[in-house]
Every structure is written in structure tokens, then in C-alpha cells.
Design brief:
It contains eleven helices and 15 strands. It has 365 residues and is α/β, with parallel strands linked by helices. It folds into two domains: 180 residues, Rossmann fold, CATH 3.40.50.450; 149 residues, Phosphofructokinase domain (Rossmann fold).
């Protein structure tokens, strides 16, 4: 046990994911077991710009929160301190670098280290602060599972389970009305949620960003099912899925400090085209933020807990500018640069892709 009292900060940034509260709880309990103080930074890095947004965390504040979705300290996908939108005297929005103010507040408050829980955007920011001298440990969080260096991120399992449950429910109404349902799931530029929920939920076709799809092949597959007596079909479509020779569908451009464009609309387009090509009654459904909500699964609770405790261990060991990563059966620390160096997409030779093909799920190619 450490004999030195340290002061730690923890922030959660980007989209929320089931398991965030499990990370916070584990980090607080592990810090307190060492006699350390730990503070929650509200709403991503914003709490280090406006230090009134800090909250001291203790055992009472984190009691039983591991089973709750969301994050008790709030999160945001806006407000990158290196590119912060600020209104000038004329009321116009200017982008300014406020990272020095964050560093000044961090040092003034005598924080020893920051645990930055987030996806690629938040962890890129964390690495930039590490380059400015901040002691940072990253914790990978994204339902998209697109961070390199870790076998899996918490949030994926719950999001996939939510999508799978939706497919189970849609199957009964699709069968009853002999309809085709196109279900759009999250995942941005990676198809993990679509693939895993689609295989587990018995989808007939799965469209993912990694495999540009030919819609005529999907339509022919649905018509073939019809010939063999299955008058309905379920198509799972990742929000970032791309038709062959086409482009991703963007619902909105980055604005108001948002770090990324908003994807969406692919399921509606696919449904209209499948109706045209097959003549079948076709509907679309966007699961959207349902996939981010609710209680985390056992897997995500456990993984979040392991990550939160490991972050404290790595602070104790002085492993800064690193990210906690799952390398089964262990948790290890990898450099943040390695974690954010490339996007982790679904390997086309992965066992799950091969399984989908073996059981006659159409992947659009």
C-alpha cells in the first residue's frame, strides 16, 4: 500500500457507454484503499476549464453504481480544449486553444494524474496533454469497439445485447406480416455491433462498413428465402455501411464543437431500395441511442471494474501516457500512441465473419 497521499482526477468523454460507472466505482475504491483522494471531472475535459465542475468522490457516492448505465460525472463529445469554440465580442464563434488553461488548473489543484476514460477522440486529447506534461492514464471506452491495442472495449457487449433483443422482437412481427425489416445499429466506421448482434439475432443479411455491399445481391438473397418458404427477412445495417461504389450517408456535419460528423439514413435508403427490387413490404428501424442506455451486462460490468482498478495500479507504477488494455487473460498497459494509431475494424477473415457465411447470412458481397 502506498504511504504517499495522491490526488487523482477522473473524466469520462465522448458518447456514453454501459460500464462507465463500473470504471468510476473501481477507480474510487482502489484509490481510497491506497489512501488517495479522487475527484470526478464533470462533462469531459470541460471540468478542467471550469473547475467548479469538479466533484470529490468517495465510497458513498459510488456505492452500487456499477449496475447503472450512463456516467455519474457526465460526458460530452464537444469541447476539445485544443480546439475550443468560444464566442467573441461580436457574437461570432472562434476556435481557440485553451489547453494551457487546463494545464494551469490541473497543476494549481495539485492533481497527480488524470484517468481519461473515452474513445479515440478523448484518448487523442489525453495523449496531447501527456505531451504537455500531464500524467495521464487512458481507459478505452466505446460501444464501437474500434480502439486498437485492446481485445475489446466495454460497452460493446451491452450494445450488441440490446440490438440482439430488438432483432428477437422484430422477428415475430416480421414473420406475422411477411415483411422485410432493415435495422440500423451504431458503430460508426466499424461493424462490430452489426455483425455480433446480427449473427446472434438470426439476421438474414448483415451490412458492415468493412464490406461494401451490392444491394441486388441482398435482394436476390431475400427473394431466394421467399422461394424456399420464408416470406420475411431481417437485415442488420451498420450506420457506416457503404454501397459498392457509393459513400457513407451523413445525417449532419460536425458543428457546435462536436468532434465527428453524424452518420445516419442508410437503413431508410436500403429499405426503399429493397422494396423496389423485391416488391416486398419493407420497413426500417433505427435503434439509435437505445444501444447506449440501460444496465451494463455482466461482461461490461466486470471489464469496466477491471479497467478502473488497473488504472490506479498503473498510476502507482508511474505508467503514464499509456492506456489500459485487455490482453486475455490479463489487463496490461500500452502506449496511448499505439491505442489511437489506427482504427480497429472487423477482420474479413475473422471467425464471426466466416460463421456468418457458413450459416447463409448474406454480407452483401
Amino acid at each position: 500500500m502506498s504511504t504517499r497521499t495522491l490526488k487523482i482526477a477522473i473524466s469520462t468523454g465522448g458518447g456514453d457507454a454501459p460500464g462507465l460507472n463500473a470504471v468510476i466505482r473501481a477507480a474510487v475504491r482502489a484509490a481510497k484503499s491506497r489512501g488517495w483522494d479522487i475527484f470526478g471531472v464533470r462533462n469531459g475535459y470541460s471540468g478542467l476549464l471550469d473547475t467548479d465542475d469538479l466533484i470529490e468522490l468517495n465510497a458513498d457516492k459510488v456505492n452500487r453504481i456499477h449496475s447503472r448505465g450512463g456516467t455519474i460525472i457526465g460526458t460530452t463529445n464537444k469541447g476539445n480544449p485544443f480546439e475550443y469554440p468560444v464566442k467573441n465580442v461580436a457574437g461570432e464563434v472562434e476556435v481557440r486553444d485553451l489547453s494551457d488553461k487546463v494545464m494551469e488548473n490541473f497543476r494549481r489543484l495539485r492533481f497527480h494524474a488524470l484517468i481519461a476514460v473515452g474513445g479515440d477522440g478523448s484518448l487523442n486529447i489525453a495523449h496531447r496533454f501527456a505531451e504537455k506534461g500531464m500524467n495521464v492514464i487512458g481507459v478505452p471506452k466505446t460501444i464501437d469497439n474500434d480502439l486498437s491495442g485492446t481485445a475489446i472495449t466495454f460497452g460493446l457487449d451491452t450494445a450488441s445485447a440490446t440490438a440482439t433483443d430488438a432483432l428477437d422482437k422484430l422477428e415475430t412481427t416480421a414473420r406475422s406480416h411477411e415483411r422485410v425489416f432493415v435495422v440500423e445499429v451504431m458503430g460508426r466506421y466499424a461493424g462490430w455491433i452489426a455483425l455480433e448482434s446480427g449473427v446472434a439475432g438470426g439476421a438474414n443479411a448483415i451490412l458492415i462498413p468493412e464490406i461494401p455491399f451490392d444491394l441486388e445481391k441482398v435482394a436476390n438473397h431475400i427473394l431466394d428465402l421467399d422461394v424456399h418458404g420464408q416470406k420475411y427477412a431481417i437485415v442488420v445495417c451498420a450506420e457506416g455501411a457503404v454501397p459498392r461504389g457509393g459513400a457513407m450517408m451523413i445525417k449532419g456535419a460536425a458543428e457546435d464543437g462536436r468532434q465527428e460528423v453524424v452518420l445516419g439514413g442508410i437503413a431508410e435508403w436500403v429499405a426503399k431500395e429493397l422494396h423496389r427490387l423485391t416488391g416486398k413490404d419493407t420497413r426500417h428501424l433505427v435503434l439509435g441511442h437505445l444501444q447506449r442506455g440501460g444496465s451494463p451486462t455482466r461482461f461490461d460490468r466486470l471489464l469496466g471494474t477491471r479497467f478502473g482498478a488497473a488504472a490506479i495500479r498503473f498510476i502507482e507504477q508511474g505508467l503514464f501516457d499509456h492506456m489500459v488494455a485487455l490482453d486475455p487473460p490479463t489487463v496490461k498497459a500500452i502506449p496511448l500512441t499505439e491505442a489511437v494509431s489506427r482504427m480497429k475494424q472487423v477482420p474479413l477473415d475473422s471467425d464471426t465473419v466466416l460463421t456468418a457465411r457458413d450459416i447463409d447470412i448474406c454480407l452483401g458481397d
